[in-house]
Input
Amino acid sequence: MTSACLRTLVFIPLVLLVSSPGLSVALAQRTTPQDERRLVEWAARLDAVDRPDEAISVLEGLLDERPASRPGLALLLEVAARRERVAPFLPRFARAGGDEAASEDLRRLWIDALLAAGLADSARSVAAGWAEARPTEAGAYVAWASAELASGDPEAGAEALRRGRRKLGSRSVFAVELGTLSLQMGDYRAAADEWVRLTVTDGDAAVLEEAVGGDDDVRDAFVDAVAAAVRGMPPAAIVAASHLMLRFGVPERAGELARDLEGRLPLPERSEFLARFAEGARASGAHNQGAWAAERLADLIADPVRRDRWRASAANMAFQAGDSTRARRAFDQLLRSVARGTDVHRVSARRLFSLTLSETGRAELMLADFQRTYPQPESELVEMRIELARSFVRADRLSDAERILVTGTSITPTGDVVLHARLALELGYVRLYVGDVVGAIRALEDATSATASEVGTRTSAIRLAGALASSDSATAKRFGHLLHLIARRPTPAELEEGLREWECGDTSPETMALAASGLDEAGFAAQAVALRERLIDRYPVAPESPVALLAIARHERALQPFGDAASLPVSRLERLILEYPESAVTPLARRLRAEWLAISRSEAGGG
Amino acid sequence: MSALYMRVALAVLVVLAVPARGSGQLLVPMDDAQENHLKAYGLAYKVLEAEERADWLLNYRDGSFIIPDMPAVRRMAALMGVAVEPVGPAELARIRAEIESSNMESVPLERAPKVAVYKPPNSSPWDDAVTLALEYAEIPYETVWDTEVLAGRLSDFDWLHLHHEDFTGQYSKFYLTYAGTEWLREAVERNEGVAAEFGYPSVPELKKAVAREIRAYVEGGGFLFAMCTATETLDLALAARTTDIAAFFADGSPVDPAADRTMDWGQAMAFANAALVHEPSISAFSDIDGHLVNTPQRLPLSSFTLFDFSAKFDPVPTMLTQSHVRVLPDFYGLTTSFRRARLKPGMIVLAEGGGGIAKYIHGVYGEGTFTFYGGHDPEDPQHLIGDPPTDLELRRHSPGYRLILNNVLFPAAKKKELKT
Output
């Protein structure tokens, strides 16, 4: 027997179920709500596997027995509307929705079916009749408005809703519908007024907020309108508006409203508002606004434990927001009030140190203090020492940078070779910046000789030592000068100039690759990509070229995470694989390519 | 008709039959020179997908392929990391001569088969070796499950894979061991939902119907490949046409005490006369499995050996056993192997483990064929529920996975060449 025959046999029971009168009787006798649910789910599955005609047959079978089945009619409308074949089923909707005892849902389905069939005038007439016959049913006015809107007369739709409001009072459904309609009409102030109405009456404004959608222009206009609408309104509306703006990703506007409101609130309400606003801001990533609220709140609290908790929150959010002034102020206050030796004190001291690095003198004192209070873990002290040394480098105080690193060995009394190697690598760089090539190589050898040093540290040290060893002294010094320039965080113009000068002289694939890594570390990603491209052009057969190509592909991928097979990062990987089949990074490139393509397929919904 | 006319007509036919491509060919070696055995199958598949022809050189350098030498093909091979060797007309003639004079054969591959994998819509806490192989080799596939099978969708596919499904409808007998786990609760709910939807009184009855559809698919000319429990339970479900072999938790009634006597083995495809495991708490189904991993009778793992077949007279078993390694490490599954005493006459054993237990078998049913491969994951001998998936990038020469991919390409072979 062929599979086609079998398929036919499999579906005979289904066809019989929905078309045979004998079986229909059986169905009526046992059509329970569970059966109804099962049949509707069945139809939905059929529709989902692109078999809408069979889905409609199942639904018609169900509706023959249960003409007022709301889920059955709803799915029938959905399937038929998608196939633009609603008209043949209108009698079913009319029978269910036109019944004297029909529920609001069924009446609404009837009107929706008329609209889906393109009979807007009929829909309007039925809806108006419904409102007249049952003036206390809010759904009638909503359906009427939909029919008017479908007829191209949104103003009449709005009037239908206002008529409902006059009859039934301020129900939230009218505010939601009028707000949504106003948005569609571009009347943002009217939409904002409805939104305010919803918030002050504890209505659910989420539907209306969702209707604003993702269009930035609409969102901005709505935000402006809300800001104007809440002016002079009770605090509840302003509070709601500030949270709306946080959710809508306009934290500055939220902050303006919050600052305006905060001074006007009596104390208990003010604390509660600030706490909620700080939490809302933190949750939506608006750390700056959150830090402001948490700091204000901390100033209001007498209880030292709660106050420190909010101060820590303010400090951390300010730190994350990059607001170093506020963060330093908050950490300073916190360090004065919390006990030494606590986690809060340690974290605050560590963060305040990072924020103070530009003041190298003060930072050095803080480091010494931190080391006395928290001699462990040594790794944290080494990291701090390296941060301070880099700060000295940026301030062009290379001898201080060297001093800090050299004395750093004293903080590793356990003789931790990994930490020693980290300091030695950093020292190698600083000596190279000074022009002490021999000293730099010695420090780098020190970093590589530590057998237990981290792979990353060792590799970096070997790469730099190798590049220096293969250059003459003058070339190495010129390279050190470039690396120093990069480490000083120059302006883009200074950097371009420095790179141009350096590339006019002797370069090598090793030094270009190292310089590109330095640019990456210093945050000059675009310049790093450009330098790597020049490396590939200048030294196409060097082993550094495929590595550079891989780095470029990764950088581009980070900017374009869901690119398809034709995307630039994938094509870079393909170039690497095809042009450098023997490179050590080629297997990695193949793997990345497969992973990226798999992600693209899953993003596109493929399997 | 004159002899001259015949010669001209023949020449025209030959010219028309030559596919439009460059004169050179690429050899995809499948011996130790190959850098990525698994992706090599994907490369051959892509060539077929592009409506180009490939030849499978059975037993020549462990089952190499000949594909057209075109820039796009070379590019794809390089991107996939598949080793290819250009061969000119003289070298190709030498290879063909060697094939002609040895236990080798050249099988034309003509069409990329449409592949379906039978798996439930959500993820189970175990991985499917075939899905891993297909994805790694970049061979496209679609998934089907009971709804699609019962809707007759199998006829849309050339190749169907089943993995780790329990066609007796007993949830691999994990019902008691894993009671309360979310994945099992979901599996039960999903299966019961589909059974109710299609009007079957229980999940075991649903699965029997699905098994019959799958058998009909093979009978109608489909290629079926199954691993792990799907092999054994498919046949048990078919033979239990009118017998209750499901434990109480699956259908509300205990196993029929007389089930062993009432099984209709004439309905099964591969096995006969098995003794059922009646205990609901033991995750084993019958004595078809030679290893019975979850029972006190569990056999230890050893290795299994691929048999050699005559490439010219038995090209199908030869295709299915192409490998650069003939002795492979064994691996457990809920069904690990097949006792020879339970195989139906006519079944071909492709590989055998210690104690003469079959590991890998092949059979013909109606117009189609089926291949059963015991065990769960060829590169994870004791795969446990919840274990991470095997990373095939680290197993790209896996002979165990090669056997799976042999099956995927098998339906691409030109029909008239299949003599078995």
About this structure: Chain A touches chain B through 27 residues (CB under 8 Å). Residues 1-30 of chain A have pLDDT under 50 and may be disordered.
